[in-house]
Amino acid sequence: MVIAIDGPAGAGKSTVARAVAEELGFTYLDSGAMYRCVALAALESGLGLDDGEVLGELARGLEIGLDGRRALIAERDVSAAIREPGVTAAASQVSVHPQVREAMVGRQRHLIAAGHYVAEGRDIGTVVSPDSPLKVFLTASDEERARRRAAQTGEDFESVLDAQRRRDARDTEREHGALRAADDAVELDSSSMSLEEVVGRIVVIARQRGLA
Is the pLDDT of residue 23 over 90? Predict the structure, then answer.
């Protein structure tokens, strides 16, 4: 069983999902980290980011591990490396390929079938687990999302905002697994909400629905 938390980059999905999982005693799953691992491996191998067939083969054979707050490739800790700006941009590019998405979605479904998860990403509630008993679409204003990202990475706000808008366009316009709210998702705008308020809202809904 999975509680799905989807939304655009910078909306706070990772922080919220991790906190909700801890509050409910569930396991946290960062689906985006899996795509970042594929992107990092592609960059390190010098593979073209537009070749879906090659990237799909890479994704199917890549040994990815998610260990709490760590992301691993073949037991190598890449937690910091996959958060670098270049890998972030590349992850958005590789994730448009259906071959890559098929490989990652299969892994995600296998994981969540074996326990209780809070999973965050772009298409958990629409593609990976459309039968999820609680789907949350978490968002915030463009400016607030860019401000958060700039504060986190130290990058220039305007540069972050421009890159974010280009990434949003790729995520919403791609043919497979496009970013959108599920029809039955609870939509939360976190622009003026604290982390505690967002987490509290989701935890209350989960308990009202008998999920914890």
Answer: yes
Of the CA atoms within 13 Å of residue 98, those in its CB half-sphere come to 2
The model's pLDDT over 87-142, given as tens digits with 9 standing for 90+, comes to 998 998 999 999 999 999 999 999 899 899 999 998 999 999 999 999 999 999 99
Q: Is 75 left (phi over 0), alpha (psi -120 to 50) or beta?
A: left
Rounded to whole angstroms, the Cα distance separating 148 from 140 reads 10
For residues 65, 80, 158 and 170, what is the CA-based torsion angle, rounded to 10 degrees?
Answer: -20
Q: Which of 20, 41, 39, 38 is nearest to 29 (CA)?
A: 20
What is the Cα–Cα distance from 185 to 136, expressed in whole angstroms?
A: 5
Backbone angles phi, psi at 71, to 5 degrees: -115, 135
* Whole-angstrom distance, CA of residue 10 vs CA of residue 147: 9
CB 106 within 8 A of CB 59: no
Angle (CA) 144 147 151, round 5°: 145
Let me know: does 2 contact 124? Beta carbons within 8 Å.
yes
Complete DSSP assignment for 73-97 = ETTEE-TTGGGSHHHHHHHHHHTT-
List 147's β-bridge partners, or say none.
none
